[in-house]
Each structure stands twice: as structure tokens, then as C-alpha cells.
Design brief:
Length: 355
């Protein structure tokens, strides 16, 4: 059955900079350092819990937890977070509870939040949040470091993470572009300057490679954004683009390479063909193709280098009468085209006719 696929990329909100170091007397193994402000986010993590799979699905609870360091100025405090899972188009607030003292100046507060209950194994959202505290019902004080990021978390121990990546065909330039979002942990202000983050990529399994610097840095979302052409598609479009990211920070060089496997993004459409051999009488070839980097609009097929036939409306099935062919070996060819007529995928299979 014919399937037309289209890849949609969602870029989420991001991370912020942290410049204050933990004083030596503080021994907490926190994710993020805190300094002299009244409230700082110091911990975050996420969990998933799957329930019984009866009656047509396995419900999954997506939860996250946050720890905050709050200055112990007065006894009466109101502590919590404001969070979003739609890039701040809307938001929620959740209250934290006191846990214990951290030192003579700060207390640890924490909270758990149910972000979503779904039947999918991968969350279709990203959580961004910030912490606040008010003292004796006074005005709120916010963590000065801005937004924090749950699923693509960065910290001093893990200062580099890839948030999103995808390949898409650009009709105007007739090229496939790679789009990547990267979060980094800025150790100081110099780490937000251009040239700090680069992508090393290949389309031929590292026989050759190229280097691309980040195109922009979103200072609000703290997100490095890459977008650059990787290939002009043809009948032999490469299967994928493979890349790693390097971050040359003020504290040294850090790599993100997916635990040595690198990040692999599909370019060429996926395909599966069902070829019957030997063929006798009325037969058909059915080709299923996924879109990958392309918005596929037309599918064509032919036999033995004859005229191409449009099979888009035939559910990817090319029907023919084998009695019109001679006995012996023949060749079936199929191809996929995008809206502007560019051929982005081609395959062929031999089959035998035995009338």
C-alpha cells in the first residue's frame, strides 16, 4: 500500500546560562550550580511509568521532578515552578514542598509533576520551566538563569546535547537541508559567541566529511540552530546524513556523538517491494514508500525501460498482463518524485515470466 510521508520538526524551548560556581563548603551533587540569588533550580529529571495494557493500549504517565535551592530569609515562603510543554503558548504552575536544609543559607525544596498521560512510548512534547519563590507573601523572585529544559538537559557534567534533527527537501534550491538544534551549557559569556559549536557531517560513511558552524544562536531559548544543504537529490539520493557535534567551550572541547554511534538522519525514502516470480497471467508489483526527507507527490513505474506510468492513484500498485511479455527475465522499475518533478528515489527488480 502506498504511503506518503512527511517529516515535521518541532523545536522546543531551551536552556539558560549558569555562571556562578558552587562554594567549596557545599558538597551537594546538584545538576546545576547556584549562587547568590534567592532561588535557583538545582535538580531536574523525568520518569515514565507504564500501567497494565488491557483494553487496547498501555497508558504511560510522563512525570518530571525539580529541586530548588531557596534562600532561608524568613519562615513563610511560597516556592514553585512555572512550566510549559508547548513552547510557552500556554503554561502551568506547580508548588514545591520543603525537603531539608542545604547549608546555613539555603533550603532544598522539591516537587513532582505529571506532565502527560498518553499511549505513546515517546513524549510528543518538551518541558521548559523556571523556578520562583516569594517571602511572607511578597513579590515573586525568579531564578535568574531563565528557562530549564527537561528531556534534552545540559549541565556542567553534560554541557552538550542535540535537541532535534531532521532532513528536509527545499524546493526553491532543489537541495536537501539538514536542520539541527543543539543545547549547550555556557560556562561564561564567551561560550555564546559564534564559532563555538560546529557540526561534522558525511553522506558517504566518512569517506569524506564537511564542517558547518551554527547558523544562529537564540539567546532567549539558548538554542544553537543549524540549517545547511547536504545533497542535491537524484535517482541515487544517499540513504542518510551522519553527524557529530563539537562544542569548543571556555572549559575545553566537548563532543556529542550519540555514544560513538553518531547521529543518523534518513534522507532517501524507505521502500519495500513485493516481487512475484515466476509471473503467470495478470500480476502486479506493489511498492510502499515512506517520505523521509521528502513530501512525495508522484509515483511511477515501468517494465523493461518502457514508458513511465503514473501509479500514484493506484495505491502504489503496477498491474500488467504477463502474457504480453515473452517468457524469461524482465525488469521492473519504480521511482518517486516530489512536487516540482525532481526524482528522489529509484529502484529496480528483475522477475521471470513463465506463461
Amino acid at each position: 500500500m502506498l504511503s506518503i510521508g512527511k517529516l515535521v520538526v518541532v523545536a522546543a524551548a531551551a536552556f539558560s546560562s549558569f555562571s556562578s560556581a558552587i562554594p567549596l563548603q557545599r558538597r551537594e551533587a546538584f545538576d546545576y550550580p547556584y549562587g547568590s540569588a534567592d532561588v535557583h533550580v538545582v535538580q531536574s529529571q523525568h520518569t515514565e511509568r507504564t500501567y497494565n495494557c488491557e483494553r487496547g493500549g498501555c497508558p504511560i504517565d510522563y512525570k518530571f521532578s525539580v529541586g530548588l535551592a531557596v534562600r532561608n530569609k524568613v519562615y513563610d515562603k511560597n516556592v514553585g515552578i512555572r512550566w510549559t510543554k508547548d513552547n510557552w503558548m500556554s503554561h502551568n504552575e506547580s508548588s514545591a514542598a520543603f525537603v531539608r536544609k542545604i547549608d546555613d543559607s539555603y533550603e532544598l525544596w522539591s516537587l513532582d509533576v505529571l506532565a502527560s498521560s498518553t499511549h505513546t512510548s515517546v513524549p510528543k512534547f518538551e518541558v521548559s520551566f523556571n523556578g520562583f519563590a516569594s517571602f511572607q507573601n511578597g513579590p515573586r523572585t525568579w531564578d535568574p538563569n531563565g528557562n530549564y529544559f527537561i528531556y534534552s538537559k545540559v549541565s556542567p557534567a553534560q554541557p552538550l546535547n542535540v535537541a532535534a534533527s531532521a532532513a528536509q527537501y527545499d524546493a526553491a534550491s532543489k537541495s536537501v537541508y539538514l536542520t539541527v538544534g543543539v543545547h549547550t551549557y555556557p560556562f561564561d559569556d564567551s561560550d555564546t559567541q559564534n564559532g563555538k559549536v560546529k557540526i561534522i557531517w558525511t553522506i558517504d560513511n566518512w569517506k569524506t566529511n564537511n564542517v558547518a558552524p551554527a547558523e544562529t544562536f537564540n539567546k532567549v531559548d539558548k538554542l544553537w540552530q543549524f540549517r545547511f544543504p547536504v545533497v542535491v537529490p537524484s535517482a541515487n539520493t544517499p540513504e542518510n546524513v551522519t553527524f557529530a557535534v563539537v562544542y569548543e567551550s571556555s572549559k575545553g572541547k566537548f563532543w556529542y556523538n550519540n555514544d560513538g554511534k553518531n547521529v543518523v538522519v534518513d534522507i532517501r525514502p524507505y521502500s519495500s517491494s513485493y516481487v512475484y516470480s515466476p509471473v503467470h497471467g495478470t500480476a502486479s508489483f506493489t511498492v510502499s514508500i515512506w517520505g523521509a526527507a521528502f513530501d512525495l507527490r508522484r509515483f511511477e513505474a515501468r517494465i523493461d525501460n518502457g514508458e513511465w506510468k503514473d501509479i500514484t492513484n493506484d495505491f502504489g500498485s503496477y498491474k500488467f498482463d504477463s502474457t504480453t511479455l515473452s517468457n524469461g527475465s524482465h525488469k521492473f522499475q519504480g521511482r518517486a518524485l516530489v512536487e516540482d518533478g525532481t526524482v528522489v528515489f529509484h529502484e529496480e527488480h528483475e522477475f521471470t515470466v513463465q506463461n
